[in-house]
């Protein structure tokens, strides 16, 4: 068992190192926010000629996404999931899909930037629109072999309709491990943790008779469950905010809750692709999702987090904010949902940029963890003049944009209820502070090094055997 | 008729303006070269952890692609074709799909950067792996309302299996127009024009009894048809090289000439998506395309072009080099073909960078005209543990990479023999010279302004009415 060996080394080294300057890092992750998602959101939110706030950032680079098989040989896998990529961002180590800040093959726990920051006396926080136990936030403050091990009841018998999906038996406390993701978050030294996922905090902790939420309180967290409580929480508390049972409701939805839909070819067309006709899905608008009413926005949570992390703080902080449902809505073929969460990310970025105006030693990085399935496609085929039915074999949404044109969005990576991720390199944006540190093209793991160095968390820690 | 009115104004102004310094612009266009194509090529050519030469360029930015409907109202269209985007790059004007350096709605001819350069006493050249009459090269030196009007026989009755696809009757010389694309190229002041498309130069010119090729010779072009002739052409000639009847053969193909293929679900699975099984396409390697043997590579053509354009040249030059079949092979669902043409683009870039080392006043820009359909997808679904058949509804290639892993490439924008383009913003790369001129995010039309200013082709020319 190599658990915590390198982590403790890292903590000790980190503790000695951050004596140089007080600096802040705000890492904003748009889950699945690739150039298609960005272009779709730009067209809808700002118009074809418009600019997102992202587009006005002085730094734009590309990030090479790396994944390996679950072995110590590190054979490449060309498409990532959010668990392995969040691990890479949080720890600088490339790992295998499904892992939460543990190493491929060896299962070694990997120290995270949030842990290093806390150990060095900096504050640290996580804000997400997912459950706080979801892969991206989890990877910054927990270590398990499988992302599905979100609470004490999900450590051994994880299945979907009887199909076993793995377990985390070596992460059980009884086996000398740190327990489930929720238990690790409750035991963490985070200063603020906001998002969804309250259902993962109600089970009893392993080997105890209190709930995970009670364990978090015992560890000094003040619990809040709604916007009013969030704004009225004591100024000096460590804060755990859980605003929904799971993922927070998204801001926008297709009218009538419509997703992308299949084109409907005529019977004749089914017999031969050059015959018959096809009915395309009706156009649709995006509308507000009533379920999001009263739920704290990502911006509101970020504002509170920045206030908590920066108040009377001479040492600096690390904050990760995730707009999670760009990806989740794309899996479900809901372009309006993704667009709304891109808008939430833009608001977070505006908040971070305003903060950095008053705190110049603040590095702001915005990136995606991996690319996604959605494609911005022509509304009406480029070959429609050829007078035969041409249509996507997948699902298409035809969105009426506020400027009055129609934007096609195609989802066609599989026939399953959830689309696949894709393997393109993803964009990275940074504020002027980032320009000195980030080249035009970097590996995802380099971002960890840049953030660690910026926070003064040197010297280097040997993370691998 | 507004034909040539503004063009002549531009030429006169251009003539007076380039007295400041001798500068060179090399614009390299990867047709359809979006971040998926780049990532696919990187994985295959350099490995998952590898870097393309593109990735080592000091400047990387994003380009907003704009297209409008064919009217003077400029209502946006969210997905482009190569004709309208090449027009934007060549002239700085956003136009409608299918147009070659003519304005949407008004059909006004738009002066191109190559024309402005020639008029100001600079040299100009075009190199492409497509037919020189294809949309991208054409837009730098010709003006027609429809890209299909490639030769004198294709001006009026353009159809596909009896389906009429438009015409260029107002571009006929008899109507006071400049004639077909091939005729305009033959009459152009380009110093060098290399690529495919000899079949478009054999018809007789409109209203004459000589072929387009003979007209080009009468205009001072030396014609070459193979690599030997290319290398032995007289040093002081203007050069027209046509090395294939149409598009040049591509470098790589799937083994056994295989393209992406459909997964084959079992009969039971056709009845219900959770039942039965599915056969995925066999994996495949990429192999050399024997048809490309003896054809000049894009690099060989670029070397000759740079030699011709720079020799004893005190005034500078504009050169556009297009790797055309990244896009063309993606339309045909041939990932190996696209990868090979990405490799050709890399070789061109290496050639250009080596040239710029000795000629520091050389601006190198590499960009795509628009995004394409191919997606880098997981080989084996992310949901394969769920024990039901999961597969793409489109066509998939499973490519064995030289590092021994399998890379999935999905084509699923339509059911037609040719995939659609897509609408994501595209990457832009530049050499150190470009860093002073190019911000992190720009509109495609801005690239024209940057190149024009760099070549000293100010003052501004009013391009629209």
> At the third CATH level, what is the topology name of the largest domain in chain A?
Alkaline Phosphatase, subunit A
**Separation of the first and last Cα atoms of chain A:** 12 Å
Percentage of residues in DSSP E strands of chain A = 15-25%
| Annotated CATH architecture of the largest domain in chain A | 3-Layer(aba) Sandwich
| Radius of gyration from the alpha-carbon trace of chain A, in angstroms | 22 Å
**Assembly type of the shown chains?**
homodimer
Strand order of the largest sheet of chain A: 9-10-8-5-16-1-17-21-2-22
Pfam families (chains A, B): Alk_phosphatase
Active site (chains A, B): 82 (phosphoserine intermediate)
Organism (chains A, B): Sediminihaliea albiluteola
Binding site for Zn(2+) (chains A, B): 31, 327, 331, 369-370, 421
């Amino acid at each position: 068992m190599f658990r915590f060996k390198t982590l403790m080394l890292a903590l000790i080294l980190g503790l000695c190192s951050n004596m140089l300057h007080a600096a802040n890092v705000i890492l904003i992750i748009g889950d699945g926010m690739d150039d298609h998602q960005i272009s779709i959101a730009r067209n809808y939110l700002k118009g074809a000629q418009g600019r997102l706030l992202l587009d006005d950032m002085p730094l734009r680079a590309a990030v090479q996404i790396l994944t390996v098989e679950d072995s110590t040989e590190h054979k490449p896998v060309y498409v990532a999931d959010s668990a392995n990529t969040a691990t890479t961002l949080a720890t600088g180590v490339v790992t295998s899909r499904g892992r939460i800040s543990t190493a491929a093959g060896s299962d070694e726990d990997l120290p995270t930037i949030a842990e290093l920051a806390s150990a060095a006396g900096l504050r640290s926080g996580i804000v997400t629109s997912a459950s706080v136990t979801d892969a991206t936030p989890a990877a910054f403050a927990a270590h398990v072999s499988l992302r599905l091990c979100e609470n004490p009841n999900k450590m051994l018998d994880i299945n979907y309709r009887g199909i076993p999906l793995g377990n985390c038996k070596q992460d059980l406390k009884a086996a000398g491990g740190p327990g489930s993701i929720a238990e690790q978050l409750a035991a963490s030294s985070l200063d603020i943790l906001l998002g969804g996922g309250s259902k993962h905090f109600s089970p009893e902790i392993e080997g105890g008779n209190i709930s995970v939420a009670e364990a978090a309180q015992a560890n000094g967290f003040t619990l809040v469950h709604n916007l009013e409580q969030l704004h009225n929480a004591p100024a000096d508390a460590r804060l755990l905010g859980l605003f929904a049972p799971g993922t927070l409701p998204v801001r926008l939805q297709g009218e009538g809750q419509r997703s992308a839909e299949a084109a409907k070819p005529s019977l004749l067309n089914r017999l031969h692709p050059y015959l018959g006709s096809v009915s395309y899905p009706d156009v649709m608008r995006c509308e507000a999702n009533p379920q999001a009413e009263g739920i704290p926005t990502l911006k509101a949570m970020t504002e509170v987090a920045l206030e908590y992390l920066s108040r009377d703080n001479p040492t600096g902080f690390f904050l990760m904010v995730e707009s999670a449902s760009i990806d989740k809505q794309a899996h479900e073929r809901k372009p309006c949902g993704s667009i709304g969460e891109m808008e939430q990310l833009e608001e977070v970025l505006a908040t971070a940029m305003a903060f950095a105006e008053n705190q110049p030693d603040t590095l702001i990085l915005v990136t995606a963890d991996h690319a996604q399935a959605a494609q911005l496609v022509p509304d009406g085929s480029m070959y429609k003049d050829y007078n035969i039915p041409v249509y996507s074999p997948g699902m298409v949404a035809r969105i009426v944009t506020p400027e009055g044109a129609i934007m096609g969005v195609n989802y066609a990576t599989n026939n399953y209820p959830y689309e696949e991720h894709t393997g393109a390199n993803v964009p990275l944006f940074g504020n002027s502070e980032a320009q000195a540190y980030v080249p035009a093209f970097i590996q995802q793991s380099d971002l960890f090094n840049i953030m660690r160095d910026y926070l003064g968390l040197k010297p280097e820690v040997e993370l691998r055997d």
